[in-house]
Amino acid sequence: MADSSPSSTTVSRTALLLLRVLTFIFLFIALILIAVAKQTDDNTGEKIKFSDFYTYRYMISTIIIGFVYNLLQMGFSIFTVVSGNRVLSGDGGYLFDFFGDKIISYFLISGSSAGFGLTVELRRGAPSNSFTDKAHASASLLLIGFLFTAMASTFTSFALSKKTNSS
Amino acid sequence: MADSSPSSTTVSRTALLLLRVLTFIFLFIALILIAVAKQTDDNTGEKIKFSDFYTYRYMISTIIIGFVYNLLQMGFSIFTVVSGNRVLSGDGGYLFDFFGDKIISYFLISGSSAGFGLTVELRRGAPSNSFTDKAHASASLLLIGFLFTAMASTFTSFALSKKTNSS
């Protein structure tokens, strides 16, 4: 198959790295936004922040998991460029990419959905405020991060089939 | 590769059909549970049901999408058994399975997470009641349905690579 030529593999590798860098950036901003989200009630003086909600705590956990995974993958890519060898050789590397992207993309969509689900209902009860705005923005960025990871996951699924094909 | 032998393919096909039937059953019960979830406030007499929350409406949408998809896939399987031919021949069938399972599994986990995220926060505010119990059970069954679909998605990703390999 023409798709298995080295140049095509290099293109996929570059596209994959680009997707991981983009995910990393979006997750980083999402993390900052949800971490700084605070609101003081004008009447009661009560402060609310993300840690008051289990759902936002879960969301921040998924952001951190995705963040660490993408950091690791970018480290692997740099190692590959510098040394010319893959960190995990043979089937191991392809399977790690395949399952890694798949599982992490499920984590990211679950965190984003949980965040959206709660934010939408919080917003209906009260007028829009700084806290829910930041939470909404964070969930949106997490959703974009998920979309990039889902694309990377599609790439690595196809890479698995090309790999089997060329061996 | 020995994995591409017809008997192994038949085993995967059967496992895949079993996963789809299980998903279908779990989604069906999840659908009934969230649809019948109702609660009347003892003090105010106010009734709450799933359609009062955008998040539960989204959850029910994802259940219906998953339900219809699995019904379609089961129909395709029955057609294949009866006629001996796949509905979508060639690459089309494998790509449909691959993207179908991938996208539907993302829908299912997002519906389940959104449902859980809201239910957990609703339960914290008020004592456990019939409505949140049913919503929680529905989100749990949806999560199990997701796990089956995620397994099916892993199968169909590998089927894609075997298919490319044997052609």
Automatic annotation (TrEMBL), chains A, B:
Subcellular compartments: Cell membrane
A GO term from the CC aspect: plasma membrane
Protein known as: CASP-like protein
Primary localization: membrane
Record InterPro entries: CASP_dom
Family, per entry: Belongs to the Casparian strip membrane proteins (CASP) family.
Casparian strip membrane protein domain segment(s): 12-148
Summary of subunit composition and partner proteins: Homodimer and heterodimers.
Lipid bilayer topology: Multi-pass membrane protein
Residue stretches spanning the membrane: 15-37, 58-83, 103-120, 141-160
Keywords for the protein's UniProt record, in alphabetical order: Cell membrane, Membrane, Transmembrane, Transmembrane helix
Primary gene name: LOC106758502
